[in-house]
């Protein structure tokens, strides 16, 4: 389903656009993902809408068949990319799981701000973005996913999330679609 509307109080949630993650090889250039996310962040801020910047600084315990890509995180690994132009009004969340809601203050903060919808962007489509979108939907938020402002380390999993998972979790659209909806609200 294409994105049709944005609620009066919609927040942008940017997943893992941090120095260590954007350095991984990805299906689409991370520079373009960062550019689109930055455009959205600027647009949300200029309209007084919340921006949430999420980084990951660990992983949950337990065995998996695919061990984490890094052992100890190098200095600066979790630092958000400067292109996001982090502002004092942005809410920052550091997670240690795939999704941004588990063991963080994100749900309480969004609800405290009166947010009813989230637009989610970032890396990786099939992990951090998808896990956050699933949880947001389960918590009752309307979910929108800006598909040109995300990528994955694997093209197949990226495409599968966009084609098969996201339409069941919310609405999908491009950065331009979301900017157009924001512009209509301001008119």
From TrEMBL:
Arranged from A to Z, the UniProt key words for this protein are: Hydrolase
Can you tell which superkingdom this protein's organism belongs to? Bacteria
Q: Which CDD domains match?
A: cysteine_hydrolases
- Output the SUPFAM superfamilies linked to this UniProt entry: Isochorismatase-like hydrolases
Which residues does the UniProt record annotate as the domain Isochorismatase-like? 10-176
Which InterPro entries does the annotation name? Isochorismatase-like_dom, Isochorismatase-like_hydrls, Isochorismatase-like_sf
Q: What is this protein called?
A: Isochorismatase family protein
């Amino acid at each position: 389903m294409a994105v049709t509307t944005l609620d009066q109080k919609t927040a942008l949630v940017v997943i893992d656009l941090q120095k260590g993650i954007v350095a991984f090889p990805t299906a689409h250039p991370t520079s373009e993902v960062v550019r689109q996310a930055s455009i959205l962040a600027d647009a949300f801020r200029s309209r007084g809408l919340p921006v949430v910047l999420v980084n990951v600084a660990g992983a949950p315990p337990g065995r998996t068949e695919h061990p984490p890509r890094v052992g100890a995180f190098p200095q600066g690994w979790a630092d958000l990319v400067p292109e996001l132009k982090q502002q004092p009004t942005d809410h920052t969340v550091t997670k240690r799981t795939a999704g941004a809601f588990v063991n963080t203050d994100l749900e309480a903060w969004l609800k405290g701000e009166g947010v009813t919808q989230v637009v989610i962007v970032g890396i990786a489509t099939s992990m951090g973005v998808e896990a956050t979108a699933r949880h947001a939907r389960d918590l009752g938020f309307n979910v929108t996913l800006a598909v040109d402002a995300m990528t994955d380390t694997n093209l197949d999993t990226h495409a599968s999330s966009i084609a098969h998972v996201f339409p069941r979790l919310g609405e999908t659209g491009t950065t331009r679609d979301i900017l157009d909806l924001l512009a209509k609200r301001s008119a």
